[in-house]
């Protein structure tokens, strides 16, 4: 695929991301994406056969970006505290911004009857390994306390995703992300 084709796919994913965040997975149709992306049906179907493939690419792209970010920073010797600070700062912003949350869409996508939850479990495992690598890196460098990395990961992922999910359903106290981040830092630093 050429540069123009890849740019079109990127535009489609960006538009679809906004629709999935707004409506969830089940309510978004290829027609919605065509209209919002200002593409013909043929133009959209040339790149994607359906919403499932678009959503999968969005999730894969997000996960790969985060994995690469952690790995590159660790390999380049960036202090673990700085990596943690930057990631938690982003998480805090995301927890406060319910408009960009894909939590409901992710829930709908992975709880569909025909879908195997293997893919979600694999993504969870990849995210867990990535965080455990960062935590081990921080402990090896003496920047983090000696902790149970798996338990810390559980606190991070489930509090983050919980706030993202609840923020789609009800207003949340804007201090909640601050308190969560503070507790995570206290566990590690």
TrEMBL record:
Residues 6-66 form the HTH tetR-type domain. Pfam families: TetR_C_17 (PF17922), TetR_N (PF00440). It comes from Kineothrix alysoides. Keywords: DNA-binding, Transcription, Transcription regulation. One of its GO terms (molecular function) is DNA binding. Residues 29-48 bind DNA. SUPFAM superfamilies: Homeodomain-like (SSF46689), Tetracyclin repressor-like, C-terminal domain (SSF48498). InterPro entries: Homeodomain-like_sf (IPR009057), HTH_TetR (IPR001647), Tet_transcr_reg_TetR-rel_C_sf (IPR036271), YfiR_C (IPR041612). PROSITE patterns: HTH_TETR_2. The keyword Transcription applies. This is TetR family transcriptional regulator.
